[in-house]
Amino acid sequence: MASDVIVIGSGIVGASTAFHLAAAGISVTLIEKDHPAAGPTGKSSAVSHLFYTEPELSQLAQRGCEWLKRLPAIGDGPAVFHEVGMLWCTGEENAEEWAAAARRIHDQEGGEIFVITPEDLAARAPDFVMDDIAIGIWEPAYGYADPYEATNGFVNAARARGAIIRQQSRVGEIETAGGRVAGVRLESGEPI
Question: CB of 175 within 8 A of CB of 191?
């Protein structure tokens, strides 16, 4: 059976793409030369937070964190998101821009993020050296995700929705017809 879409690579992006396509009812095959998260995703620290000065990035981050937080219910797997809190500190040179970004994320985007004073920071972390800290940005509901479990969660959720998952399958050639991608051929010679 030919798929409408072939996704090559099962890092977090490929796995999530396969899941979303399958969830939308699109036939999809996910091809991975090794195993999920075998490449850069598996080497990621997977730090997950909202704080970005650019609205586009903070909005994407919030959506991504929401997916990671609810992945166990979607993929029927373990929790992959670990809320340990995220703390950012800056001096006077960035304080105004950072505070404005945190207020935007909190007030306009609904993110759980707060500006804290050096005094609040010292009370929370009495062993910190407070020299030159003008403000802190505190994100209590954020932290990190397990990159392997998150990727495998999306792969398993894609499979459960009908995606075909091909591991240990190296793509040898992308086939075209009429100037368009028509499929792939594995190094073994098998067409997909």
Answer: yes
Contact 153, 72 (CB under 8 A): yes
Pairing of strands 47-48, 143-145: antiparallel
Query: CA 91, CA 74: separation in Å to the nearest integer?
Result: 41
For 9-30, how does the pLDDT look when each residue is reduced to its tens digit (9 = 90+)?
A: 999 999 999 999 999 999 999 9
Instruction: Answer for the pair 32, 10: CB distance below 8 angstroms, yes or no.
Output: yes
Which pair of tokens denotes residue 91?
A: 């001096």
Q: In this structure, are strands 86-90 and 135-139 parallel, antiparallel, or unpaired?
A: antiparallel
Angle between helices 55-75 and 92-107 (to 10 degrees): 50
For 127, the token pair is 């062993």
pLDDT tens for residues 160-170? 999 999 999 99
Kindly report the pTM of this predicted structure: 0.88
